[in-house]
Amino acid sequence: LKTTLLQESDKLPRMQEEGQALLIVLEEVYTENVSRALLRQRNLPGNFEQWWTVAKEVVTMPLFILQQLHHTWRGFTQAFQQTSLSRWFLTGIILLSWFGLVMAVSAWATRIFNASKRSRLVEHLIVFLRLWRENTMSLAVTGGFLLFLWLIQPNHLTTVITLTLFLTWLGGKVLMNLSRFLLSTPEFQSQKTNRLYRQLRWTIIVLGILTIITVFSHVSAEGEVGLSLATRDLIDTLFMVLLSLTIPALMQARKLIRSV
């Protein structure tokens, strides 16, 4: 028995090398397949049966999204149960450090704004500091949750959905605040700029919602069947069409800013 075990243990290094080589090949194949999937042409349903299938899946999208959120919560629950006490202690220290950094930068920005004189460096960072102070709590919560996500390391579905929700929310909020800052200066005070700001705000909101739906349509829990390829293609097409419709509003804002 001892001789057999020694012979089998001698095979382990070779098996590990073969497994590592196979893993590299699988990663290359996966990367190539993802690239092909992203670059392939999107095709809309070609007959009534396909359209009917797509319509039924679109109707059930709210239920599908709720299921994805349920799987996300379950992924967090499993990650909580598997996290050790030392990991929780490290998580608490890092989160407190992050919250302290965000509050310190916000307090520094407030003091800078109240100062009578500003350096040239501060003048270049004025928009960044205003955005930071305006979104202090959002940055603290989002950054803290992302650090928390990195430390507990939940499953892939939970990570993707959580990143999508928080980054879309923070990105949309920052873009709306930036639009308001740029269009609230005395040079832009007019009814036309107010209407442009409303257009930009609703554009950002609609694109944010559609971004979340698009990401949700491309992920699914392990062992479950996701949306059909035709439905995903339709959602991708709608996303690109609505994204292209934002170009006139952005060009109008650019033209307005350049005219001042």
> What are the segments in which pLDDT stays under 50 over at least 5 consecutive residues?
none
Instruction: Estimate the strand proportion.
Output: under 5%
Radius of gyration, in angstroms, nearest whole number:
25 Å
Topology as a string of helices (H) and strands (E): HHHHHHHHHH
Q: What's the average pLDDT?
A: 77
Largest sheet features: none
Helix-residue proportion = over 70%
- Count the beta strands: 0
N-to-C span: 87 Å
Tell me what you see in this structure:
This protein has 260 residues and is an all-alpha fold. Helix content is 85%, strand content 0%. The chain has helices at 2-39, 48-59, 61-82, 85-114, 120-124, 126-134, 136-152, 156-183, 191-218, 229-259. Helix 8 (156-183) packs antiparallel against helix 9. The protein is extended, with a radius of gyration of 25 Å. It starts with a helix and ends with a helix. The model has no long low-confidence stretch (mean pLDDT 77).
Offer a concise description of the structure.
By secondary structure, the chain is mainly alpha-helical. It contains 10 helices and no strands. It has helices at residues 2-39, 48-59, 61-82, 85-114, 120-124, 126-134, 136-152, 156-183, 191-218, 229-259.
Question: What's the topology here?
Answer:
Elements: H1 2-39, H2 48-59, H3 61-82, H4 85-114, H5 120-124, H6 126-134, H7 136-152, H8 156-183, H9 191-218, H10 229-259
Note the main attributes of this structure.
0% strand, extended, single chain, 10 helices
